[in-house]
Amino acid sequence: MTKFDEATQAIRVDETTYDVCLDPGYSIGGPLNGGYLMAVLLRAVVDASPHEHPVSTTTQFLKAPTPGPARVIVQQLKAGRTAAFTRATLVKDDVAHLEALVTTATLPAEQDVVYTGGPEHLMPPPDDCVRLPDPKPESGMTLNAQMEMRFDPPTIGWLKGEPTGRPEARAHFRMTEPQDPDPFVLALAVDALPPVVFSAGLRGWAPTVDLTWHLRALPAPGWLTLLGGGRLIADGWFDEEVEVWDSAGRLVAQSRQLARVGRG
């Protein structure tokens, strides 16, 4: 079991209840990363489902939970031969913090592809990309230590006060501890990029309100490539779309989230 597996572990209490412990190692400077929280929820949902893979997840982030003991409450809405539908709630201190609707199915190891396009942007190889500076210890940014990311240089110009003016973020991604990517790692990956509004010249914590992501295929071992962009920043809101491509050049996950523009 890897550190990530342990940090997202869900222990069954009964048919509808799972004990979890939210790990402080996935903090983004106070709040816990939304992708990590989704991975925790999905551990419980998959364990309770007759199917192996979370193919569609829609999550509302009601309140930012602090690290420590919590529970996931699952409600089976319908289970069929090819898919099951589950409502899952992350509860801490008797307060709902996340609410999710999850569709599970069982994906084949080999895809039967009818049509596939390629990525709209071709990333430089990881060795030609750059890492962000390590955060200062007092920042509370512990998430960076859990994953390795190599960024397409133009998309982090905001670090030097030179944003591109477009909402975009692109990076290669893998866990710091050697681990082949799986659906739970993908849940983290779709929310791992810096907010795309940074590249548009805006800064500050940008809380996610709603995030939907789809698992399109089981990823091959190796680096993942994250391609993020946005369509509209207005009235204090922005959208962010992320595609995740695996080392075999396959689209393995897609996400879209609605978030608030950063404060401060």
Can you describe this structure?
It is globular, with a radius of gyration of 18 Å. The protein has helices at residues 3-7, 34-48, 183-189; strands at 11-12, 17-22, 53-61, 68-79, 84-92, 95-105, 147-151, 168-175, 208-215, 224-229, 233-234, 237-245, 251-260. 10% of the residues lie in helices and 37% in strands. Strand 5 and strand 6 form a beta hairpin. The chain starts with a helix and ends with a strand. The chain contains three helices and 13 strands. Strands 1, 2, 3, 4, 5, 6, 7, 8, 9, 10, 11, 12 and 13 form a 13-stranded antiparallel β-sheet that branches. Helix 2 runs antiparallel to helix 3. By secondary structure, the chain is mainly β.
Layout of strands and helices, then pairs:
Elements (H helix, E strand, L loop, with lengths): L2 H5 L3 E2 L4 E6 L11 H15 L4 E9 L6 E12 L4 E9 L2 E11 L41 E5 L16 E8 L7 H7 L18 E8 L8 E6 L3 E2 L2 E9 L5 E10 L4
Antiparallel strand pairs: 1-2, 2-4, 3-6, 3-9, 4-5, 5-6, 7-8, 8-10, 9-13, 10-12, 11-12, 12-13
Quick structural overview:
This protein has 264 residues and is mainly beta. Helices cover 10% and strands 37% of the residues.
